Recover the amino acids of this structure.
């Protein structure tokens, strides 16, 4: 038991030193120092190969089968949970197996193959970090039999893809192509959390490092608000350990084309919509848009007849949708809306719905005239309700219609917004403006106070009478 505890402690120490000294280990901002070994990347999911991956990826990232490996190719040991149990490498000097955790984040330089005296084939590596030789012994059969498969050498992430990605992508403008990305939670471990981002958002590549064996390139990007997040992606698929028919299904986000789009490729299909930039439009119907609040994306229900300025149009490649960047004229709040400029009515194979058609949803010019105070505009931007707001302003601030509405006998209206801690109650006066509001915390406090008052006024039992009559207390 003592040996196991000591081993775990040494492993954590090795993880910390490795993360701090290795230039291939990159992290998003605000990652915390790990306090436990957890959340190791265990990517067992599959990815779908982009059908038209013949440009950027095809031209820059060559696939090397095990048979074609050349001496000097560099890899990094990136063990997953299974690799911590089954040891991959042996020390060439002693012939003893070595823990994958002790080699974690170490760079292995391929030194060719050899056959041992007992007839087993080995893949030889020089560890760049400690200048020692290690080997991976092929489980069975000849090297030629083994190298034509997709098994490869466990734990090794190909650094050639990382180096090329750094040369080609650092500082480049990309567009997001999925909604699910990651943020590091540990500065010296593999902990992460998922973050939801809008698609077709322009981002800048700020760092590129090593990801996992299956998806070796970790691309960190930054959006216009300064938020950083990343995706681990497959490029050449060298030593991925996955067959071609496994690159399918729901993990498209772990291919480069599934996670990002190069700016140049987007601009080629975007030029037709530039004429809308700078124009004023209004929405004829209530609709849902995406906006920002406290650095996060929020889906907001927009009342009809709101006025916007079109700041940008971004076509989504291989689809009929265009993402509009809109600034609401009163509050100056920025919204994003996906629309199509092709009328889907009457088209049997149309993917879009009528309410997503630009000509149905929007019209040129300003909508209903609104007089919004500076205080109300600030509250809307912060997602808060203040006294004096109109019903439409409350909807804009809260991002949705209320969960429930009630009317009082004196002509007032009560709106209830359900939140995780209780209800936010908004009271409108007879003039249609917010008269007062009560937060969930205040509502909960009021309920507790009422309960205590009821308990205090409840008649106490006559214990003396109960004792004298034998009645149970």
């Amino acid at each position: 038991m003592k040996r196991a505890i000591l081993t775990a402690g040494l492993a954590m120490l090795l993880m910390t030193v490795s993360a701090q000294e290795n230039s291939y280990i990159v992290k998003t901002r605000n990652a915390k120092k790990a306090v436990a070994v957890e959340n190791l990347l265990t990517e067992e999911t599959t990815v779908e190969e982009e059908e038209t991956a013949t440009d950027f990826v095809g031209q820059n990232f060559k696939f090397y089968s095990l048979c074609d490996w050349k001496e000097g190719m560099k890899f990094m040991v990136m063990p997953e949970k299974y690799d911590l149990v089954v040891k991959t490498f042996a020390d060439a000097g002693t012939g003893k197996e070595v823990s994958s955790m002790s080699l974690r984040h170490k760079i292995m330089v391929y030194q060719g193959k050899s056959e041992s005296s007992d007839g087993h084939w080995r893949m030889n590596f020089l560890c760049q970090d400690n200048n020692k030789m290690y080997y991976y012994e092929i489980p069975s059969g000849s090297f030629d039999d083994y190298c034509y498969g997709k098994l490869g050498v466990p734990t090794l992430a190909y650094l050639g893809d990382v180096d090329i990605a750094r040369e080609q992508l650092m500082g480049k403008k990309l567009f997001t192509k999925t909604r699910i990305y990651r943020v590091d939670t540990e500065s010296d471990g593999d902990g992460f959390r998922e973050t939801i981002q809008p698609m077709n958002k322009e981002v800048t590549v700020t760092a590129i490092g090593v990801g996992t064996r299956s998806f070796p390139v970790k691309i960190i990007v930054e959006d216009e608000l300064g938020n950083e997040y990343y995706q681990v992606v497959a490029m050449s698929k060298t030593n991925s350990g996955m067959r071609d028919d496994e690159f399918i299904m729901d993990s498209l986000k772990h291919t480069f084309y599934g996670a990002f789009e190069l700016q140049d490729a987007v601009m080629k299909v975007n030029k037709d919509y530039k004429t809308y930039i700078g124009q004023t439009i209004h929405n004829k119907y209530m609709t849902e848009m995406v906006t920002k609040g406290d650095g996060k994306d929020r889906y907001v229900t927009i009342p009809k007849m709101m006025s916007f300025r079109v700041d940008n149009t971004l076509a989504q490649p291989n689809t009929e949708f265009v993402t509009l960047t809109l600034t609401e004229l009163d509050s100056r709040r920025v919204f994003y809306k996906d629309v199509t400029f092709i009328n889907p009515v009457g088209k049997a194979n149309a993917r879009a719905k009528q309410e997503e058609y630009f000509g149905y949803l929007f019209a040129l010019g300003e909508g209903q005239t609104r007089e919004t105070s500076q205080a109300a505009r600030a509250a809307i931007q912060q997602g808060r309700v203040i006294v004096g707001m109109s019903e439409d302003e409350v909807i804009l601030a809260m991002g949705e219609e209320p969960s429930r509405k009630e009317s009082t006998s004196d002509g007032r209206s009560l709106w209830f917004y359900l939140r995780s801690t209780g209800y936010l109650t908004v009271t409108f006066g007879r003039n249609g403006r917010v008269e007062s509001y009560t937060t969930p915390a205040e509502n909960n406090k009021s309920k507790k106070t009422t309960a205590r008052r009821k308990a205090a006024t409840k008649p106490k039992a006559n214990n003396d009478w109960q004792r004298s009559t034998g009645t149970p207390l």
